[in-house]
Amino acid sequence: MVSKNGSLVVHRRALLLASIVFVGGILTTTGSTLAAKSAQTVNVASVYQKASVVIDGVMQNFPQSAVVIGGATMVPMRSIFEKLGATIAFNTATQTVTATRGSTVIKIVIGSNIATVNGNRITLTVKAQSINNSTMVPLRFVSEAFGAQVGWNVSTLTATITSGTSGGSAVITPAEAVPSGRPSSTVSVSEKGIVVQFGKHDYGSKSQSEYKFVMDKVNAALQGYSSVRYNEGGVYEQQFKDFLAGQRWSGNTSDRSTQNKGLKIAEGALGQLVANGVSSSTIEKAYQTSIVAYTLLDNTVDPRTGKPDSAFTALNDKIADCDGISNVVIATFDANGFNTAIVSNGADAKPVVQIEGNWYVVSSGTFAKTTLLTTTSQSAPLFLYTAPTL
Known about the structure:
single chain, 2 domains
């Protein structure tokens, strides 16, 4: 990174040369320290977008429409559950809604993110809330409660529900909420109620449209990832190949030959992958993916305000702090089939990628082995900031 009007500008080569080390379990870098922020609480907006609901192919007209609040799709519980064959009772004193269909009994308290299905607790992505005297619940809850299939078309703001026959785990088949371009084996909903492709990763997106923008950008960039060359086709490209073939630098720093310098640079970038027995083909794919990610971040400015923390602001507005940078990196690796997470020491956040069983902190073409911690306590010297994809 280099200074630009008091800000920081991301450049791939600067990041390639930045050393990444773990000292006493604390993540540090030779670059500037960027603030990592606590996970934000999603508040209910006073203004929301109306959405449509289609059940078993029929467009519905409810007294209270479905709505999109802060990226979360909320649907009227009574109207939809009654359409699915349930009876609804409301206890005014306890603010508890009870839905019954056959042997399935569902209970939820307005203002809570915990529901029960036959006594089994379910954590909702967004708290149940009352809008115009209608109890609103996250779209996904319809699936979790009655085993229905639910979908979300972000272009038309339409929720589709195909009725199920029994309660059970969620089965979500979104229409256009998932960006086109690359296949996904798993679709779920993030803590903000955003339909996502990989784990619970929404990459800091504030809405479904922001998430789609990010993934479309990432998928487009990955189309040609296999053409990325070692050292980006630079003077040391052959030395990277030689290093993977078993050649090593002499250990003599006075030897300034291209061969010796190139082998030393290759060792710094890929040495820990090689030392842990990662196959050459996997190393190449990981290297190429990292270059794609940091190419997306070229000329991104960090205003050093601690606010631009999402992949969307990094890719759309070209501003990002360490969180935004990390989110772009894990989005790129997720989309290319890797398991990813973000770790932090409270002052800096870094993307980590699992490669053939081990975890590595990744910079632009550089991989440093680490141990993925399980603690999420931000008082710890090092903690898990974003949970793994898998």
